[in-house]
Amino acid sequence: MEEMKKACFGVRTDLALEERERFPGDGGEVAGVKLREWEKEKAGLRLTEVVITNEKGARSMGKPVGTYLTLEAPGLAKKDEDYHKEVVGELSAQLKLLFGRHGIGTKEGKAPSVLVVGLGNMEATPDSLGPRVLENLQMTRQLTFEYGEDFCAEHGYPVLSGITPGVMAQTGMETAEIIRGIVKETQPQAVLAVDALAARSVHRLGVTIQLSDTGIHPGSGVGNHRNSLTEETLGAPVFALGVPTVVGAAAIVHDTVGAMIEVLKREKATAGFGESIDNMQPEEQYELIRELLEPQFGPMYVTPHNIDEQVRMLSFLISEAIHGALFL
What we know:
- This protein is an alpha/beta fold.
- It is built from 14 helices and nine strands.
- Strands 1, 2, 3, 4, 5, 6, 7, 8 and 9 form a nine-stranded mixed beta sheet that branches.
- Helix 4 crosses helix 14, helix 5 crosses helix 14 and helix 11 crosses helix 12.
- It is elongated, with a radius of gyration of 21 Å.
- The chain starts with a helix and ends with a helix.
- The N terminus is likely disordered.
């Protein structure tokens, strides 16, 4: 019952790591969910792997069965080229490992064929990560038309193609409709969808990268894609790579309330008020905040003041990691 109550706590997040943090303990108490954590101390990186193994775990987490790997790199907020190279190397290695688990790679002398989809809206900076990654990628599929199907394999290149489908307001089409047609025509081994995400904690904006092998589902991503992008809907394995660029205003206020409660409890005049709020369940506190905020402001999201600079840096970093994972 306690797990079900926590699963209903509606703080918006696309990060499996943050969903997992709603449950206390080391991971063993959540049936159907495996947790593994490790650090790259020299590089200053922390990695967390959440594996949802069955439908019970999926219901508890509110996410599909599959693997979710989160790379936390606090130093990304700084202009440190050496540190950024460490992040690129680790992200590249983890992406290559995830591809390998699903048999995506060089087989029988053929180069891996991957379609990269840059989800989002180039006109809205917090949602422009996917399209900007596509701008930095070195596409190679055209070489198979110029020099023959075996050219990429002979030179250690992947058959890499990409598309920025835009958003429905621009195209009048669902993203899934566009990608389904491209996959049917080009037959890639895999689809890699790159997207901007929403987080629960402001501390994870721009410094956390999530990889998953479950594709993109309705409600995920800043653009809230309406139809799923999964192997079932597209006909090819779908991997997702995302970075949180926004956090809900209600979530920020909720975190602030926690600090405010402690201040109220310390003062005699407000101690009773602080204790009454503290006695509310976290989900009750959050719903109260939403009821107060949303009639006035709507479901508002907040992004860092330097998001344009962050997105430019992240898009280059991610494109380099994709190159490193696919080019031999």
